[in-house]
Design a protein that fits this description.
Blueprint (H helix, E strand, L loop, with lengths): L1 E3 L2 H9 L4 H13 L5 H7 L4 E5 L2 E8 L4 E8 L4 E9 H6 L5
Helix pairs in contact: 1-2
Length: 99
C-alpha cells in the first residue's frame, strides 16, 4: 500500500512521547500490505473498524494499547492509504474529526 503522508505520523510521534515505535510499526506493516478490503486489514489488525462519516468510510486503527486512534481513508483498488488524523482516545471520542 502507498501511505500518504508519513509526516502526520512523524508529527504525532513528536507531539506524544512514546508513540513513535507503534506508529512506525503500523507504517511499515501497512506499507508492505496488499489489503483488498477492510476484512484483509482486520487479518493484520483485528481492532480495525470501518467508521461511516457522510459519504465516506474511514478505517480507524487502535494504536499504543488503545490510547490513540489512527484515522485513515483507504482506497483498496488504488492500494493507497490517506492518513487523516492521529488522535488521543478522548479526542477521537469527542467526534470533532468527523466535521
Amino acid at each position: 500500500m502507498h501511505v500518504i503522508t508519513r509526516k502526520k505520523l512523524l508529527d504525532a510521534a513528536r507531539k506524544h512521547g512514546g508513540l513513535s515505535v507503534p506508529l512506525d510499526a503500523w507504517y511499515r506493516t501497512a506499507k508492505s500490505a496488499k489489503w483488498k478490503s477492510l476484512e484483509d486489514g482486520r487479518r493484520t489488525y483485528s481492532h480495525a473498524d470501518g467508521v461511516p462519516v457522510a459519504d465516506k468510510v474511514y478505517t480507524v486503527f487502535n494504536i499504543s494499547g488503545n490510547s490513540f486512534r489512527l484515522v485513515t481513508e483507504i482506497f483498496y483498488e488504488d492500494q493507497t492509504i490517506l492518513l487523516r488524523h492521529v488522535l488521543t482516545h478522548s479526542e477521537y471520542s469527542r467526534g470533532d474529526w468527523k466535521k
